[in-house]
Design brief:
globular, Arc Repressor Mutant, subunit A, alpha+beta
Amino acid sequence: MHGDSQEAALTLAEEYCRERGEKLTPIRRKVLELLLNSGRATKAYSLLDEMRQIHPGSAPPTVYRALDFLLSAGLVHRIESINAFTVCHDLTQCQHGILVVCQQCGTVTELHQPKLRQALVAQIEDAGYRLASDEIELKGLCAACQAAEAAATAAAGSAASVAAAK
C-alpha cells in the first residue's frame, strides 16, 4: 500500500476505534501498519521480528495482544489455514466474505458475493455442519504465482529440449 493511502487507512482505523470507544494504541497502530505494508498474510512471528527492529524489547505477548484487539475490532482477518493475519480490505466495513488465499505467496483476496456465501453456508448446514467462524477460506494459487509457475515449467521444458538435442 502506498504512503498516502496507508496513512489514510490508519487514520480511518483510529477514527473507527474512537467511535467504538476504543483506542488504537501506538503498538496496535504499528502492527496494523506492518500488515498494511506487507500487503499479504503475515505470520505473528514475522510481525514480531519487524517490531523488534523498531522496538527492540518487543515480546510475543505484545504482538499477540495487538492482533487480538485488531481481530476483535474487525480490522484484520486471521487466516487459519496458514496461521497468519491480513488487513481487512474494507477496514471498517468488514463483511466477512470469502477469503481466497494463495498457498505460494500468501496474497489474500476477499470475495464479497453475499448470495454465493449464503448458498455455500446453506449447503454446509444442509450437510449437518455449523461453521466454526465467520471466515470462509479457499486455498489457491494467485495469477502472479500461476504465471511464475508456468514460466518455470516452460524454462525447464526448453532446457530439457536443448539437452535432448545435443
